[in-house]
Structures are given as structure tokens and as C-alpha cells.
Amino acid sequence: MNYYETLYIVHPALESGRLKDIILGVEENLKKSGGTPLTTEFWGKRKLAFFIEKQKYGTYVLLQFNGEGKCTSDFAVELEHNPNILAHLTTVIEKDAVKEIEEDLETQIAGKTREIEKAESTSEDGKKETTETETATEAAVTELNTEPEGTAPVRSEEGEPAEKAEATKAEETTTDESAAEDNTETQEPAKEETAVSEEE
């Protein structure tokens, strides 16, 4: 007899009562296909790596079972035809890898639901703390940038003293002005040539 485990993802919109019915229905389909369910582990709602049927989240359930022959292929067909199951994957496992779970399905579902609610409230609190920390950091940076004169030398973006940076900017400005003058000198003779050709 071979041992298998199937991880399937149930639609996230289902409530805990309906979810239990779906899981029990999957186990019944497995029994009809010739398999024997060993353990069912409820993993809870998790974010998907990519959208499946336009869903961002899914409720994960791990089912370990044993069976022979065409049991897995018949079971896969049943899962494919179930509209509440977004995706599934069945793999072969060793007998040693079969888990023993003491909690019943209802307790697992209730426990995971509470954990998800706690995690959501904790993440909201974490966002508030992060926002407060960012505000304090911005205030400290602003305070450092507005130090009174004479306390620290003013530096340019490149790290040079401000006087040297201003001198460099002045040199660049004069270079730009002289280049502009050269352009106007080259354009004036062209205008004169155009005027001469019009007179002829």
C-alpha cells in the first residue's frame, strides 16, 4: 500500500462552518476513490505567490492518505471538479512521514482563525509603530539640517566646503556663458551671407 499527501487550496471566502463541510466532502470523495484518509492538517489562510482564479489568498489544507491503484488519479479528478478548490498537489510519501495530529478538524479551524485575527491586529499595530518611528526619524534629520551657523561647516553634495563649491559653480557659469557667446558669433556671419545672397 502506498502513502500519499495532497495539499489543496480552498477558496478564501468560505467561512469556518462551510470550510469544514468542504474538507469532509473531500475526505468522502477520497473514500469513494478507494483511499483511506489518515490525517488532515488545517494550515489556515495564506497569501498566494500568484493569483489563482483571481484570488490573492487561499486556505491551505494538507491531507495524508493511503491507497492503491487508480486511487490518486480518481481523487485528482474529484478535486478538479470541485469549484471550491483553487489548486491541489499530490505527492508520494514514506510511511514514516505520516503525521499524527491529536486535534480534531473543528479545533484546528477555530485555532487557525484566531491566529489569523491576532496576526492581522499585530500587523496593524506594527504599521502604527513604524509610522511613529519614521516621523521621529524625519524630525531628527530636519533638526540636524537646521543647525545654527558656526556650529558645523556647511558642505556641498560632494562633501566639499561651501566656499569651494560656490567657486566651482561660478567657473561653470562663466564657461557656459562663453560657449553661448561663441554660438552667437558663428550665427551672425551666416545671417550676413543670407542677406548678401538675397540682394543679388
What does this 3D model show about the protein?
The protein is α+β, with helices and mostly antiparallel strands. Among the domains are: 100 residues, Ribosomal protein S6/Translation elongation factor EF1B (Alpha-Beta Plaits); 31 residues. The protein has four helices and four strands, in the order βαββαβαα. Helix 1 packs antiparallel against helix 2. The radius of gyration is 36 Å and the shape is globular. The mean pLDDT is 75.
What is the number of helical segments per DSSP (H or I, 4+ residues)? 4
In which order are the strands of the major sheet placed?
2-3-1-4
Overall average pLDDT = 75
- Distance between the terminal alpha carbons, to the nearest Å? 108 Å
Stretches with pLDDT under 50, minimum 5 residues: none
CATH architecture term of the domain at 2-101: 2-Layer Sandwich
The CATH topology of the domain at 2-101, please? Alpha-Beta Plaits
Shape: globular
What assembly state would you assign to the polypeptide chains in this entry?
single chain
The major beta sheet can be summarized as: 4 strands, antiparallel
The H-level CATH homologous superfamily of the domain at 2-101, spelled out, is Ribosomal protein S6/Translation elongation factor EF1B
Strand content: 15-25%
Radius of gyration: 36 Å
Number of strands: 4
Q: Could you name the CATH class of the domain at 2-101?
A: Alpha Beta
Q: Could you give the order of the helices and strands?
A: EHEEHEHH
Helix and strand content put the structural class at alpha+beta
User: What portion of residues is helical?
Assistant: 40-55%
